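$ ./design --mode recover --in tokens.txt
reading tokens...
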């Protein structure tokens, strides 16, 4: 069977399906871009601004650090808490932050030297005890941290002096620096002990550039500048994260001047922003990947490897990038993006409807007898609900019926964590710069985010995480990447192209790790 991609047909299908999805076709009204006098006045007023309102698709799950593996939470609280190690905003390379240096003493011991003179918002000193407390918080099962499984190899944290801390592991753990960089934020031990976890989760105290002011659930989070910040006083003094779940509503709020910045602007709305004299678009190829999970924990046809292979051949990723994302994404073929260390080229399951149907028959299925459920968030990732509808249309071409279930983001995440998903779901993962934080955290039994599990592959993954030698480690991960592709563990989609709608006079450079650091912003 020839590939029967028909652009016009797809556009018609997408038009009909998008009409059924809360999405982006609505053209918001503009209140301040058609009058030159108003524009000039607005610019003069904004040039004096020392505050910013950032539109966000979802509320934070909690405000206590080291608990919620959720971008919406992490992006906001990193303005309150500091990490030990951060990244270069464009290359992703490690940069010392609260830790000035680190070294591997042996394969089971890491030692970090900490910065002196850093204060928490309540005046307490940052020191090695703070680091030990923050790691012990993750390891304590009673705290319910979703990061805990990633830190299971930690056996002990030892305070050597106020500025030196040693982290000892039960097995060789070469990926520890990545764990520290990606996961760990520093809590104030005295404050948490005094008020308890529940209160600290509502009124956080950190060493970061902004102090907590007020949090209204599902409405906003307000912060103010920490003038004694060790890295210098922030230029922007007042920050508000305002929660606006729907794309079209965020866009309306931006164009009317209610918010100054938001991420994940729909690609079909880019021209609306570019046409506004007070606005601009910023874009970066993010370290976040998007994928279609094929749930092997759910009883159904996707437990059969041949069916998963058929789905890979039936989903036309090139068409999705072109027709739905207008080219704002980089295609992936395996579990890692090219920005990831230890990336290797893997087989590309290019679109082949004949092969997909043949594989289904080998598995004992007639395509028309298969009905699958596809869950998607709406507004969490660029055009996510539209992508899901388009995938359903592509699978329908070979006879598979797909019911698309659109979820609010919090509900979507909870269904994944509680293993309540059915056949397939859309999800993104990142920021991801090295293989442990993607392959180990997605494809092992206790990691819920891919819903794929194979005992033999897990054994190879666990073995790879312990290899200190860089060449041996790369060889091991290369082999694992090919295994995951060969077994059709999921449908890899793309490395996400992050589009931001930005006020024209706001100095803002999008980061490859997706962090929203208000400290790095200023008004012109």
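writing sequence...
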């Amino acid at each position: 069977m020839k590939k029967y991609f028909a652009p016009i047909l797809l556009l018609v299908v997408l038009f009909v399906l998008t009409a059924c999805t809360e999405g982006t076709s609505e053209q918001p009204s503009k209140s301040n871009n058609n009058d030159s006098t108003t524009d000039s006045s607005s610019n003069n007023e904004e040039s004096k601004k020392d505050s910013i309102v950032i539109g966000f698709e979802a509320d934070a799950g909690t405000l206590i650090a080291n608990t919620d593996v959720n971008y919406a939470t992490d992006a906001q609280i990193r303005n309150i808490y500091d990490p030990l190690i951060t990244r270069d905003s464009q290359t992703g390379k490690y940069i010392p932050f609260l830790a000035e240096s680190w070294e591997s003493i042996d394969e089971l011991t890491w030692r970090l030297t900490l910065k002196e003179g850093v204060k928490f918002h309540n005046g307490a000193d940052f020191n090695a005890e703070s680091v030990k407390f923050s790691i012990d918080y993750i390891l304590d099962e009673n705290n319910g941290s979703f990061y805990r499984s990633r830190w299971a190899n930690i056996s002990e944290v030892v305070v050597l002096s106020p500025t030196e801390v040693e982290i000892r592991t039960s097995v060789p753990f070469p990926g520890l620096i990545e764990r520290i960089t990606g996961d760990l934020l520093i809590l104030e031990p005295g404050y948490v002990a005094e008020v308890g976890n529940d209160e600290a989760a509502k009124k956080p105290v950190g060493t970061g550039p902004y102090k907590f002011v007020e949090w209204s659930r599902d409405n906003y989070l307000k912060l103010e500048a920490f003038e004694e910040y060790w890295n210098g006083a922030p230029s922007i003094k007042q920050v508000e994260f305002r929660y606006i779940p729907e794309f079209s509503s965020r866009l309306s709020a931006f164009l009317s001047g209610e918010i100054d910045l938001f991420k994940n602007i729909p690609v079909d709305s880019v021209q609306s922003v570019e046409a506004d004299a007070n606005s601009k678009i910023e874009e970066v190829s993010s370290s976040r990947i998007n994928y279609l999970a094929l749930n092997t924990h759910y009883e159904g046809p996707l437990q059969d490897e041949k069916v998963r292979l058929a789905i890979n051949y039936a989903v036309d990723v090139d068409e999705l990038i072109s027709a739905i994302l207008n080219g704002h994404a980089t295609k992936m073929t395996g579990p890692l993006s090219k920005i990831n260390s230890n990336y290797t080229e893997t087989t590309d399951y290019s679109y082949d409807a004949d092969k997909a149907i043949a594989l289904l028959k080998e598995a004992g299925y007639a395509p028309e007898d298969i009905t699958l459920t596809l869950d998607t968030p709406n507004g969490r990732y660029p055009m996510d609900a539209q992508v899901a509808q388009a995938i359903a249309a592509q699978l329908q071409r070979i006879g598979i019926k797909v019911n698309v279930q659109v979820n609010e983001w919090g509900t979507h995440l909870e269904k994944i964590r509680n293993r309540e998903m059915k056949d397939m779901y859309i999800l993104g993962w990142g920021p991801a710069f090295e293989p442990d934080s993607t392959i180990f955290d997605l494809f092992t039994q206790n990691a819920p985010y891919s819903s794929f599990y194979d005992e033999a592959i897990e054994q190879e993954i666990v073995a790879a995480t312990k290899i200190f030698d860089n060449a041996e480690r790369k060889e091991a991960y290369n082999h694992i990447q090919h295994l995951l592709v060969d077994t059709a563990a999921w449908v890899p989609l793309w490395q996400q192209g992050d589009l931001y709608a930005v006020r024209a006079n706001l100095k803002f450079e999008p980061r490859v790790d997706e962090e929203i650091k208000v400290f790095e912003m200023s008004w012109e």
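exit 0
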